[in-house]
Amino acid sequence: MQPLRIAVLGMVDGNGHPYSWSAMFNNYDKETMAECPYPAIPGYLAKEPEDKIQIPGANVTHIWTDNPADAIHVAKAARIPNVVSRPEDVIGHVDAVLITTDKGYEHVERCRPFVEAGLPIFVDKPLVDNETDLKQFQRWVRDGARIMSSSCMRYCKEFMPYRTSIHSLGQLRFSSITTCKSWERYGIHAVESIYPILGPGFISAQNTGTKERNIVLFKHRTHGDVAAIAIDDMYGSHGILQLYGTSGSATVTMQDTYHAFKSQLEAFVSYLRTGERPFPFSETEELMRMVIAGIRSREENGRVVLLEEIAAD
């Protein structure tokens, strides 16, 4: 099969995914990548064997970023042959697009031209951060648009054993997961870390924190209480999962960022090839309700928000 042609579109403050994701498809120029403004990216890329860097069967062929200078540098670092002046310029030249920005309130408008063009889209987390935009994505998917979105934490290899089974822990009574940065942009990392372990069935959210210090307590229909914590400057404690059961407990820390990102992108490529979603869109819908409920509860002085309040379209 011919390699899939993919466009990388968008770059916002605090998010270097155009560098890292493009390198995972195209390999990279080490000298230029060393100048990446996010030092963690060349750091974890350098740990990978040369023959394991690339995702087979797809290449990033086009790039556009909000600041044109960023696109030029990413293109050089990740060997992308085409820099375009408008995101819509990639239509007709690629097989799919990656929206590589993590501000949920922007995603409807960033995606709209490509939905209308019938192109498959991967949207960086979170898909949305408000109810109106969630309804729009629900309509698009219902009408046949090929849209996928996830946190890389869904693919965290350190958490995989507990996705397979939590039987040894007995019945879960309490779980927690941590992240740095804001709830609006990184809360999805927390909740999507734990969602594949517990499964659907989240009932309510209560955020007792502040905009800089989000402490969100969820109720799960089967697995009790779940605390998802997002604190702005807690960089040393991102991705710590704790599971407490009647027969045992577990504490696990996410370590391999590269593996999580690459596995996420491989899942999208598989979706492009087969047409089969790696997980139902209904899971993304529930996760977005969790993100929105955490925001709503904080803005309403810690009110318990039922997820069913956040209506489906």
Automatic annotation (TrEMBL):
Q: Which InterPro entries match?
A: Gfo/Idh/MocA-like_OxRdtase_N (IPR000683), NAD(P)-bd_dom_sf (IPR036291)
State a single Pfam family of this protein.
GFO_IDH_MocA
Residues annotated as domain Gfo/Idh/MocA-like oxidoreductase N-terminal: 56-142
Which intervals of the chain form a coiled coil?
none
Q: What is this protein called?
A: Gfo/Idh/MocA-like oxidoreductase N-terminal domain-containing protein
